Amino acid sequence: MRRTYEDLVQEAEQVSVDGWDFSWLDGRATEERPSWGYSRLIGERMAGARAALDIQTGGGEILAGLPSLPPVTVATEGWPPNLRLAASRLRPRGARVVASDEDARLPFAAGTFDLVTSRHPVKTWWEEIARVLEPGGTYLSQQVGPRSVAELYEYFLGPQGEGHRQPDDAVAEAEAAGLEVVDLRFERLRMEFRDIGAVIYFLRKVIWTVPGFSVERYAGRLRELHDLIEAEGPFVAHSARFLIEARRPDGQAA
User: Fold this and answer.
1) What letter does residue 4 receive in the DSSP assignment?
2) pLDDT at res. 164
3) Which pTM value belongs to this model?
4) Domain at 154, CATH number
5) Which string of b and e fits 149-179 if b means at least 16 CB within 10 Å?
6) Are 77 and 102 contacting, i.e. CB atoms less than 8 angstroms apart?
7) Residue 235 domain-assigned (yes or no)
8) Neighbours of 96 (CB within 10 A)
9) DSSP string, 164-219
10) How do residues 193-231 score in pLDDT, each as one tens digit?
11) Which InterPro entries does UniProt cross-reference here (predicted)?
12) Of 105, 99, 52, the residue nearest 77 (C-alpha)
């Protein structure tokens, strides 16, 4: 039996969107994963690290799922609900969780970490990453690329142009901060939204996709999209992801 538009909307408006766990979308939306396997890569690097920092950790989901963590593991997060979730997940693993906004300087001494990681950072402050890395240390990050989920946000906002988050810009910024980029990979990945509740949940959780989104504000377009999905099947979009690895050269002064 098909659920009504009103039922789907009510459910998606009421469910919690704290943390960075998307399991509520199981069976309702899908997204291809990048071929490089970020969690596997991070797990391998963490296993060999001495002191690691995960920036903008969200709810700590990635670190909490790794088989082992370095002797010194620190995570930063700025959004209070995620900060609480990250602490509950990571402190039992011996990791320290520190409150730090993405626009603030990292609250650590220069050369503290041999590994810095970040998955889907809102902002990458390359100078700060270079500062807290020790000589020979590595930054490894999976980032959102240009025009990610463009089909979805342009459905609500209209044409938006080429956008930002270009991988080549990230390389230039890393090099300007004194880092050496040793790996760069980019992929576009298919996404499917199978009901309007999945769309609403996604836009509530990933708030920068459609800034200022609310069901009330976009009621007409949401109802039209519901009817489209019911008539034609899943709404298809494409995410953009790139992997970047940068190294602080040996012997570089702090």
Assistant:
1) P
2) 84
3) 0.90
4) 3.40.50.150
5) bbebbebbeeeeeeeeebbeebbebbeebbb
6) no
7) yes
8) 13
9) S--HHHHHHHHHHTT-EEEEEEEEEEEEEE-SHHHHHHHHHHSTTSSTT--TTTTH
10) 999 999 999 999 999 999 999 999 999 999 999 999 999
11) 23S_rRNA_MeTrnsfrase_RlmA, Methyltransf_11, SAM-dependent_MTases_sf
12) 99
Paired tokens of 94: 């011996």
Cβ atoms within 10 A of the Cβ of 3, count?
A: 11
Tens of pLDDT, residue by residue over 139-188, are 999 999 999 999 999 999 999 988 789 999 999 999 999 999 999 999 99
Is residue 254 a part of any domain in this protein? Answer: no
212 within domain boundaries: yes
Q: Which of 203, 236, 241, 240 lies closest to 222 in space, CA to CA? A: 203
Q: Report how many domains make up the chain.
A: 1
HSE-CB at 166 with a 13 A cutoff on CA atoms is: 8
At 43, list the tokens. Answer: 């797990």
> What span, in angstroms and rounded, lies between the C-alpha atoms of 6 and 226?
10
Residue with tokens 């807290």: 132
Q: From the centroid of its chain, how far is CA 248? A: 23
- Calpha distance 143→155 (Å, rounded): 23
Tokens of residue 183, six digits: 């790996």
Q: Which domain holds residue 41?
A: 5-247
